[in-house]
Amino acid sequence: xxxxxxxxxxxxxxxxxxxxxxxxxxxxxxxxxxxxxxxxxxxxxxxxxxxxxxxxxxxxxxx
Amino acid sequence: xxxxxxxxxxxxxxxxxxxxxxxxxxxxxxxxxxxxxxxxxxxxxxxxxxxxxxxxxxxxxxxxxxxxxxxxxxxxxxxxxxxxxxxxxxxxxxxxxxxxxxxxxxxxxxxxxxxxxxxxxxxxxxxxxxxxxxxxxxxxxxxxxxxxxxxxxxxxxxxxxxxxxxxxxxxxxxxxxxxxxxxxxxxxxxxxxxxxxxxxxxxxxxxxxxxxxxxxxxxxxxxxxxxxxxxxxxxxxxxxxxxxxxxxxxxxxxxxxxxxxxxxxxxxxxxxxxxxxxxxxxxxxxxxxxxxxxxxxxxxxxxxxxxxxxxxxxxxxxxxxxxxxxxxxxxxxxxxxxxxxxxxxxxxxxxxxxxxxxxxxxxxxxxxxxxxxxxxxxxxxxxxxxxxxxxxxxxx
Lengths: 63, 396
Ligand SMILES: Cc1cc2nc3c(=O)[nH]c(=O)nc-3n(C[C@H](O)[C@H](O)[C@H](O)COP(=O)(O)OP(=O)(O)OC[C@H]3O[C@@H](n4cnc5c(N)ncnc54)[C@H](O)[C@@H]3O)c2cc1C
Ligand code: SF4
Ligand code: SF4
Hints:
The complex is a heterodimer. Chain A has one domain (4-62): Alpha-Beta Plaits (2-Layer Sandwich). In chain A, the strands form 2 sheets. Chain A has a two-stranded antiparallel sheet. Chain A has a two-stranded antiparallel sheet with strand order 2-3. Helices cover 16% and strands 19% of the residues of chain A. Chain A is an alpha+beta fold. In chain A, strand 2 and strand 3 (38-40) form a beta hairpin. In chain B, the strands form 3 sheets. In chain B, strands 1, 2, 8, 9, 10, 11, 17 and 18 form an 8-stranded mixed β-sheet that branches. In chain B, strands 6-5-13-14-15-12-16 form a 7-stranded mixed β-sheet. Chains A and B meet through helix 1 and helix 2 of A and strand 12, helix 5 and strand 16 of B. The complex binds flavin-adenine dinucleotide and iron/sulfur cluster (2 copies). One iron/sulfur cluster is lined by residues 11, 16-22, 33, 38, 54-55, 57, 59-60 of chain A.
């Protein structure tokens, strides 16, 4: 059985508008936004999906 | 980049950060301010509406360089689009300017620079330095190159997305219900009335509202905030905004020339804003007004206090928790009562059915309010629809 952690979390450059909404709400503080690029600490992220709902444009997917 | 040290280190060059830096420098501290972006104030993540009343008290002089439009008032639209108008006289200066936010932020940063602040752009704080339970500065990257900055007082002014507070050890986490997810288009060729800032309430934007802030010449910021706990699926916030625009021909014909998003906290402010050697200010400390979503004024007011207290701590060589708690006391004195009152009002409003919004706006559309306040609004509504205000008796 694949565990939760095996699920991949991704934000697509074509959709992300670098707004920081996901960064502020992630309960584990594991999303990084340098000036334009969004990144996740895959080891800390629990795939809780909160950032997916907070993103106004649907740029984050967990699969 | 070489490691550096300073008296006061400010992370984030938004309004709260620049105000902190300016007032700390004015009071004699040697100040460094970090900003991860390459341009202060840009991209703009803001509806750009501010009131006028607070500007003098924090030492900001209105300037044509950043004032875009001076509005006469605000209009609040209920779900069935009954309108309540609040003009400037009745609003007690609560409405005022639509600004060019990038120019505004730059003007505040220039003030900070003129007061002696060193500004480092493209400099991203990546963690907090802590020794013996005291915050001593940050780890950062300048053009990608790691270095450390040591400081007697470190200030987290890193906005909604703040990580400084959490790195330092202050709980700033938000629940889904504590946040509105926002999206805004700057549109041209729209039929907006440049005399008003417009707000649309109800199911068009659950737990938030749609705003239209005029920029002049048929240009407007058309935005939406939706409470995240009421978002059911990905990209729903954008769908809400697009749907609203499609239903309003005066906007559907417009063209979008800019798109921004962001998070707005609608929570109570942080319970604790100070640690030994550390202050948290502005959106990072959840100082946004939870009813209106406006945070520029509160960030500036708290920033001035933070700057003064930080400079005093440097001067006296005492950046202990006790010394810095003066900041916590003073900003709460200035802001907390209104923040809490508006938080309670917001708690009621986020779950109000459309029919009730219609009644409230209907009751208010006929009356002239002396001053725009939650209390005055409730009293006016009680006169016409007493059943609506039953739940708010605690206020009245
Ligand atoms: C869509 C939207 C519309 C809004 N409309 C209005 C409005 O009409 N009126 C109003 O009053 N308020 C409005 N607000 C709220 C307002 O934008 C904020 O309250 C205000 O910007 C707070 O100022 P601040 O200085 O605390 O934070 P910010 O302005 O967010 O500044 C924080 C700065 O810190 C920088 N930073 C972050 N992390 C780091 C790091 N690790 N290292 C270095 N730098 C960092 C950021 O790049 C940013 O420049 C709106 C917010 C949103 C999202
Ligand atoms: S899925 Fe949850 S833990 Fe992972 S980045 Fe998103 S909010 Fe953070
Ligand atoms: S909330 Fe969405 S658009 Fe905003 S920074 Fe995160 S992934 Fe990008």
